[in-house]
Design a protein that fits this description.
alpha/beta; Rossmann fold; 2 domains; 7-stranded mixed beta sheet; 3-stranded antiparallel beta sheet; 10 strands; globular
């Protein structure tokens, strides 16, 4: 099936400049191929037959912006995605973090929160939750609202439960939530130590110092210059000997900061080396 081609490359550049000048959202360094697909998808969803219609609505109707942001930034996410990654966190990384009196974790680009709740479960099961704080941030306010409620579709729970067991879980995932028709609600005890907040990786600054930063399957949508900028942000936010976790197709290798990090055991986890290393 051919993808729609309502928005052309030159028109996309015009629209990105409009969004930045009017709303101060900068998407100019996002992957152009990915952006174009999403813009054309928005046109189909909202029944725009031309670029001019999309541009007119976006420029003249500020109330349309939240919907546009939600569609342009949505990322596929799931609980315990890549179970071997979570198993490495459980067995090797969290015990090291447990030597700290207090653990600060940043999940950047948390989307609708599945990863935040996965990590909260790991922290519960390793006895570290009560002295941890999880900052879960995203550019998309709508996604954050969903994340903060801890309510997810029931359909994927069977797969999530399998992921959980493969990640080293020893309980039944259903012990962490209650079923409500076609939805499940995770126990409120899991988000007591979570702070959900909007944060734009393109334009916002570092806001704390963390022992662990997770940003998985977000950087693949950025061009190389923007990736380097975000790595600098993470480096400013990560304490020496802290850990940076990326997605399966992402790497800090070949970036400007590669020399400051060592990959851990071939996982998508990098340790920031100390000042004397």
């Amino acid at each position: 099936m051919m993808e729609p081609d309502i928005v052309k490359d030159a028109e996309m550049e015009i629209l990105l400049k409009d969004i930045f000048s009017i709303y101060d959202y900068d998407f100019t360094q996002y992957s152009k191929a990915s952006l174009k697909r999403r813009l054309n998808r928005i046109c189909i969803i909202d029944k725009f037959t031309s670029f001019a219609e999309l541009r007119y609505r976006l420029v003249n109707d500020a109330s349309y912006l939240p919907h546009f942001i939600e569609e342009i930034t949505v990322n596929v996410t799931e609980m315990f995605r890549d179970p071997h990654f979570y198993k490495a966190l459980r067995k090797d990384i969290l015990p090291v973090l447990g030597t700290h009196p207090f653990i600060r974790i940043w999940i950047a680009g948390c989307a609708t929160g599945e990863e935040a709740y996965s990590l909260a479960i790991l922290l519960k099961e390793t006895g570290l939750y009560e002295r941890s704080l999880i900052y879960a941030t995203d550019i998309n306010p709508g996604a954050l609202e969903k994340a903060s409620r801890g309510i997810f579709p029931a359909g994927p729970m069977k797969q999530y439960a399998e992921n959980y067991i493969l990640s080293g879980g020893t309980k039944d995932l259903s012990s962490y939530y209650v079923s409500q028709y076609d939805r499940v609600r995770f126990h409120s005890a899991l988000n007591e130590k979570m702070i959900f907040s909007t944060h734009n990786l393109v334009s916002d600054a570092s806001f704390n110092e963390f022992q662990l930063i997770l940003c998985r399957n977000v950087l693949i949508y950025f061009d190389k210059d923007l990736q380097n900028s975000v790595f600098k942000l993470f480096d400013d936010s990560l304490q020496p000997l802290g850990y940076l976790a990326l997605g399966a197709k992402e790497t800090i290798r070949f970036s400007n900061l590669d020399y400051k990090y060592r990959q851990w055991n071939n996982e998508k986890i990098w340790k920031k080396i100390g000042p004397e290393s």
